[in-house]
Design goal:
Layout lengths: L8 E4 L5 H12 L3 E6 L3 H14 L3 E5 L5 H15 L4 E4 L14 H29 L3 E5 L3 H4 L5 H21 L5 E7 L2 E2 L1 H6 L3 H8 L9 E2 L1 H11 L10 E4 L7
Parallel strand pairs: 1-2, 1-4, 2-3, 4-5, 5-6, 6-9, 7-8
Length: 253
């Protein structure tokens, strides 16, 4: 590795597994100190601890319920205190359920927006002073190609991911004068633990997905880590307010 994130501190939410864990590993390999934020659930706690142990002195694991505003603020403060600031924040964690739109309850709708949208906003709000002081602050959110495609059975989730795009573009304008860059990554169909839960048969999932892609292979969490690295480091120093699609050529712009 080239040390592109040497001496930088990165907070990554939803980093106990999947895309978040792959990004944490890549950041650490490039010299960053990484806070592996995770849902305060026994299974996620164990997974986050395993990732942190794998990365050694380059990482710590911190629990936080992103639906709780107080917990979000505490996560940012504890993360910044660990290594004396923050240079990169990756708002990767998301709450997702699938059901017909008429069966979505008010509670499910509100929880989805609270975690995915409000949680991202609060991460940015509380991290702002540290990213400003960094001198090369980068805030990276996660949206989804569901925003462009529409997704039956995921209206609440898709709506939250559409909101992320508006948040990113507006926040980029707001904090640009502070030298902070704000971007988002838009993944396609990525084979993570979450997909396995909904589609355990990988062959069946591939038969459904590959006809839509230009590249005829499945995407995995590691396929996104390089995009996060690009947006986190100096190679993208003049890039802000952008949505970077990483989907194997499903949505062509």
């Amino acid at each position: 590795m080239t040390g592109k994130l040497a001496d930088r501190v990165a907070l990554i939410t939803g980093a106990s597994r999947g895309i978040g864990a792959a990004t944490a590993r890549r950041f650490a390999a490039e010299g960053a100190k990484v806070i592996i934020a995770h849902q305060p659930h026994p299974e996620r706690t164990a997974e986050a601890g395993a990732v942190a142990a794998e990365l050694g002195d380059a990482a710590i694991a911190l629990p936080a319920d992103l639906a709780d505003p107080v917990a979000v603020e505490r996560l940012v403060e504890e993360s910044a205190a660990r290594w004396g600031g923050l240079d990169v924040v990756v708002a990767n964690a998301a709450y997702e359920t699938h059901r017909p739109w008429q069966e979505i309850t008010v509670e499910q709708w509100d929880l989805t927006q609270a975690v995915n949208v409000r949680g991202t906003f609060l991460l940015a709000k509380h991290a702002h002073p540290y990213l400003r002081d960094s001198g090369h602050g980068s805030f990276i959110a996660l949206t989804s190609i569901m925003v462009d495609l529409g997704m039956v059975g995921a209206m609440h989730y898709t709506t939250s991911k559409a909101a992320i795009i508006g948040l990113v573009r507006t926040l980029a304008r707001e904090v640009g004068p502070d030298g902070i860059r704000v971007n988002a990554i838009m993944p396609g169909a990525i084979r993570t633990e979450n997909e396995v839960r909904w589609a355990p048969d990988e062959t069946v999932a591939a038969e459904r997905i590959l006809p839509h892609q230009a590249l005829q292979r499945r995407g995995y969490a590691d396929d996104l880590a390089g995009a996060f690295l690009f947006l986190a480091g100096d190679d993208s120093a003049f890039v802000t307010g952008q949505i970077l699609t990483v989907d194997g050529g499903w949505v062509l712009r």
